Amino acid sequence: MSISFYDGSAPVFIRTLNALSAILTKAEAHAAANKIAPGDLLEARLHPTMYPLTKQVQLACDFSGKACARFTQTELPVMADTETTFAELQARIKKVLANIEALPPAKYEGAEKREITFPVGPGQTMTLTGQQFLNHSAIPQFFFHCTTAYDILRHKGVELGKRDFLGVA
Amino acid sequence: MSLFDSSVPAFIQTLTSLSAVLDKAEAHAKARGIQPDALLGARLFPDMFPLTLQIQHACDLAGRACARLAQVEIPITADTETTFAELNQRIGKTIAYVRAFERSQFDGAETRNITVDVGSGRPVPLSGQRYLSNFALPSFYFHATTAYDILRHNGVELGKRDFLGAV
Q1: Chain B neighbours among A 124-153 (CB < 8 Å)?
Q2: Quick one: pLDDT band at residue A3, thresholds 50, 70, 90?
Q3: How far apart are CA A73 and CA A134, in angstroms?
Q4: How many other β-carbons are positioned within 10 Å of the β-carbon of residue B59?
Q5: Burial class for A118, CB neighbours closer than 10 Å (0-12, 13-18, 19+)
Q6: Paired strand residues for A115
Q7: Where are the domains of chain B?
Q8: Of B85, B127, B92, B87, which Cα lies nearest the Cα of B109?
Q9: What is residue A1's predicted lDDT score, i.e. its pLDDT?
Q10: Is the pTM of this model over 0.90?
Q11: What would the CATH number be for the domain defined by A5-166?
Q12: For a designed S-S bond to A133, which of A128, A169, B36, B53 qualifies (C-beta 3.0 to 4.6 A apart)?
């Protein structure tokens, strides 16, 4: 058996998006139990110049959803960043999961060698092979925002452990 | 495709970034008269690991993942680092260790049985592919990102480019 490009991409995103959803469920419960306004967590940041929790979740959704669209040469999902509640963030995660799960593994065939051009800043793009894009952009970016979402919640006192991040039951 | 492609270059990339991030943190401390220990021992919450341990864990995860996938002896490194220089040495050693693997050592790694405790308190058998995708890579990025987040939280001027490094 040899591995396909699909194995190292979509399932990784799916697994951690599900973990992120469960983490947000715990955060919402923590807020309710401790009479914390949900906005206090949703707008929390680790530093004034960093993005708040809501944006971290939105970016995790975008990096995973867009990467899978690029690998499969399908239309890039575009989502307005309008979420202001835990329920809305959950709906967004659910939507990106549905988008990723709808892309058949066969469409990933050959993606490792295909050139992918993606934005790296205002007016700037970069072109990498699918494998390089996965290793050096999509996966690090995705885990960066998922981890920072987790770190924000831990910093705010939500009881979570690395098992929640890894999605270990 | 080989699991080599999904592991070795990714670890080297982020470990190299992490080393540059630590250089910036050390320079930040020096420029502002901050004790290095204030950053090295910083945590995001009292029951989370401090910066030093986040770096040590990231190094261990990268080295051990490669060793497990290639079926060579697992490297054991004592956690003795107490300065930025020592942490950078550890990262440097880890990069050299990971870089020394040959692609052929990863042949068939995706189906190799790897038994590890992934956090449930008991070792579970996983295929090499699952071990890398479900445990080693997420854990590695978890500790690397948390090291970055600790430094950002403490005012070190860093951007996501520093985390991603030069592609």
Answers
A1: 126, 128, 131-132, 134-137, 139-141, 143-144, 147-148, 150-151
A2: low
A3: 14
A4: 29
A5: middle
A6: A129
A7: 3-164
A8: B127
A9: 45
A10: yes
A11: 1.20.120.450
A12: A128
